[in-house]
Specification:
Helices cover 54% and strands 7% of the residues. By secondary structure, the chain is mainly α. The strands form two sheets. It has a three-stranded antiparallel β-sheet with strand order 1-2-3, covered by helices on one side. A three-stranded antiparallel β-sheet has the order 4-6-5. 18% of the residues are buried. Belongs to the TRAFAC class myosin-kinesin ATPase superfamily. Myosin family.
Length: 348
């Protein structure tokens, strides 16, 4: 119920993770259909980029305002920080404050004067402004670092490398908020170079107890985690997509015309393959570079046919090998019989 600076930066990280989830699933999914020339009706979804911008914008973001308050001369308090937020973010649709000039919040008695509220993707969260400036300005004094660096214990000395007199930097150390923002940016950059798989965990109750299912809580999580939009996109779209070359390479054994070699474009080979298998046209679509399969059961059918075909091919290979082995043994016995017979006739 009481949220301060720590919960604020944790929720900021959650917003960034939700943003990359949206970009890699909902946004990228629909853009790929358009890129591949697939007929598609755009499905609306909430993009939380506006909330991330509210927090991390270099000029008008909350973290930028907090750093500015920590660095400016004069009397700096949590109240002056809140006043600055009210001036800069008063009209933002996801920011609320009792001191805000926006009249719709002036009569909101559930919001104390010393708090502000952000409408995150997972719901509204109220933050106590008390302690924001001190926690963001939590700096390790330079003389303390130097004293610890002079310790005889090697571990303590290694923990405070900034205390080395040869590396003294008179520049003001970065604030806690800016350090966290840089760490989140590094994390996002790292995630964007990967192909992540998402596992969404739903809490069935707040008591962390077994056999208790709170339907309202579960529905709240499903709604605000963006799972409804994700399901709508998946159900309206295609469950599986693959470039033509690997698709033809994997399933060409199912068609006599494409097995063992197809002497033409990969897309034409996939078209021949799917027509030969009798797959309904509404179950797949041809993109510019990929084949799109709508229903998972179509893919399961292809895999079952492939598995059966592999068994048939294994049986055929075994049959041919056994025939070759028996014939080789027969020819060797026949050759030996001729040699024995010729020598027998010579001496008989």
């Amino acid at each position: 119920q009481d949220n301060s600076f720590e919960q604020f930066i944790i929720n900021y990280c959650n917003e960034k993770l939700q943003q990359i989830f949206i970009e890699l699933t909902l946004k990228e999914e629909q853009e790929e259909y358009i890129r591949e020339g697939i007929e598609w009706t755009h499905i609306e979804y909430f993009n939380n980029a506006i909330i991330c911008d509210l927090i991390e914008n270099n000029q008008t973001g909350i973290l930028a305002m907090l750093d500015e308050e920590c660095l400016r001369p004069g009397t700096v308090t949590d109240d002056t920080f809140l006043e600055k937020l009210n001036q800069v973010c008063a009209t933002h649709q996801h920011f609320e404050s009792r001191m805000s000039k926006c009249s719709r919040f002036l009569n909101d008695t559930s919001l104390p004067h010393s708090c502000f509220r952000i409408q995150h993707y997972a719901g509204k969260v109220m933050y106590q402004v008390e302690g924001f400036v001190d926690k963001n300005n939590d700096l390790l004094y330079r003389d303390l670092s130097q004293a610890m660096w002079k310790a005889n214990h090697s571990l303590i000395k290694a923990l405070f490398p900034e205390g080395n007199p040869a590396k003294i930097n008179l520049k003001r150390p970065p604030t806690a908020g800016s350090q966290f923002k840089a760490s989140v940016a590094t994390l996002m950059k790292n995630l964007q170079t990967k192909n992540p798989n998402y596992i969404r965990c739903i809490k069935p109750n707040d008591k962390k107890a077994a056999h208790i299912f709170n339907e309202a809580l579960v529905c709240h999580q499903i709604r605000y985690l963006g799972l409804l939009e994700n399901v709508r996109v998946r159900r309206a779209g295609y469950a599986f997509r693959q470039p033509y070359e690997p698709c033809l390479e994997r399933y060409k054994m199912l068609c006599k015309q494409t097995w063992p070699h197809w002497r033409g474009p990969a897309r034409a080979g996939v078209e021949v393959l799917f027509n030969e298998l009798g797959i309904p046209e509404e179950e797949f679509s041809f993109g510019r570079s990929k084949i799109f399969i709508r229903n998972p059961r179509t893919l399961f059918k292809l895999e079952d046919l492939r598995k059966q075909r592999l068994e048939d091919l294994a049986t055929l290979i075994g049959k041919i090998y056994r025939g070759w082995k028996c014939r080789t043994r027969f020819l060797l016995m026949k050759k030996c019989q001729i040699v024995i017979a010729s020598w027998y006739r010579r001496y008989s």
